[in-house]
Each structure stands twice: as C-alpha cells, then as structure tokens.
Known about the structure:
By secondary structure, the protein is an alpha/beta fold. It has two domains: 21-184, 3-Layer(aba) Sandwich (Peroxisomal Thiolase, Chain A, domain 1), CATH 3.40.47.10; 187-288. The chain has six helices and eleven strands. Strands 1, 2, 3, 4, 5, 6, 7, 8, 9, 10 and 11 form an eleven-stranded mixed β-sheet that branches. It is globular, with a radius of gyration of 19 Å.
Amino acid sequence: MYVATPPECAGARPGTERTALGLARVEYQEFDGGGGFQPQDRIYFSDLMAAYGRTVRPGYFDGTRVTFRDMAEGMLPRLLPHHDRFDLALLASVTSDAEAGRPLCYLAHTLSHIGLAYGVADQGAGAAFTALRMAATGVRQDGARSVLLLLMDQAAVPHADPVPGRLAADRNAVVALVLGTEGDLASLTPHPAVRVAPDGAGERLRGTLASLRADGRPLTLIAGPGLTPHLPDHPADEVVTAPGGGPCTAAWSLLARGLPAWRAVGRRVVLADYDPDFSRLSMCTVDTARNGTGP
C-alpha cells in the first residue's frame, strides 16, 4: 500500500485503545544539491503529467532533485545503533517523490531485517499523524517491536500547476523517528483524528490541551503551519509555531531540536496541525523522560 486513504475522522471507534510508542531516536536533516534526471525520468514524468491532463513544469528536467531514496540513504547511518533492523517502516510525505518507484524498496536491500513497509501519502497536513496511528496499530496488533518512521519533504515540483502554500516545500528534509517498545527518550501517543470546521479547530484544541494540563504538568504546544491561523489565546505554557515550507517535517523538526531541553525538565509536548482540505485536526502527545529515567 503506497497511498493510504483516510479513516473516518469523527472520533475514535468504540473500544479503540491508544497505544503509546516509545521513542528511541529522533533526527532531522536537510539536503542540498542532488542529482540530475535520467532519460527514463523524462519519459515517466512526461507521461504521468499527460495522463492527468497536465504539463511538466518548464525547466524541470534541467535542474537537480533530492529524492526520497537519497534522503533515506543519508539518514540511516545517523540512526546508529538503531539503523538496521525494523519490524515496520513507514514513509509519510505531503509532496511527491522526485523519481519513479517506491523508495522504501531501498530499505529491503540495505537493512539486515525489514518487515512490512508502507508509504502514507495524500493525507495533507495529517500525513505524519496518520503514519503514527498506523505504527501504533502495528505495535498493538502485530507485535512490532521496532518501527522506523520517515517524514519527508522535497522541493522539486514536476507539474506546472500552482501549489497551495501550505502544501509547498522549499527545502529537502527528513525527520526520522525510531519507535518501539524499548524506546526511553519519550512516549508518543497519537490522538484519533478529529473532523472539525476551521472556526471550531481552536476550541477543540483548547479542550484537549486543558485536559492534558489538568495534572499541573507544564505543557508545550508545537503548532504546525496549518494550525497557526486557528490558535486560541494562551493554549499552553509554551507555544512554538512551525515555519512554512516543510508541510510534513516542519513541526517534527522542532521536536527533534527541542527534545534534549524538554527532557531535562520532563516537559509534556503536544504536536498538532490542522488541514483545511480534510477539515481535520491531528494531534500527538509526547511525554518526555524525566532526568533520563524513562517516560
């Protein structure tokens, strides 16, 4: 399954169990440059655009591109010692890849063990959160002990149509999260996706955050680009807004950068984003380890 269709977003199904995912590693990396296009790329993208009544962006094949495979290849060595064995791997993206094929096939030729591998696309701002819920299901139902989640953006746009700013990437970037039953940096708990109109997204967020702050523990909110226009006043003790240009990675890159400081004080962190196309609010709670003793 390379393209996953969205689940019903009205709320959790009866009996749905939330599974906390242990975080063993989180890394963020940006890539510059990249390689040129091959003759087969010209044929593939030209035929693909024509099949949908579109045209290739002028000059597209004269530039360079950083593919999802390039970024996976560059990221894996940074995940030592959690780099060569995963029961489940998921790649979430908002932008398309810049080469034909399925980049997760690369992992099968690189890792000593790889179980099921999925691509999660066509999910807008909720792509990473959808992948997290799939990871939680894999841990809960299929017994996966080690999960690799790759969140990717790439900036090369093959078609000539305009791209909405909230979905456009201005950099090539990847966030890698190694999750599993033994991860002790933090625990990640994905929330069920919620369908809510734009004018109600802020209040729905406020209600969820209020329940998470009820125990008095300080809370940081990382707001994705789609959520920023709908933020209520003072929703958390600290609010960090993700910049544009990284529709899949921006908010999660802030988690990678801020986690050491938040772990030092045992901070609870919530990542959230809103997608107006799906009218969907997505959230994930991150309970950081206190003083390195585990979440």
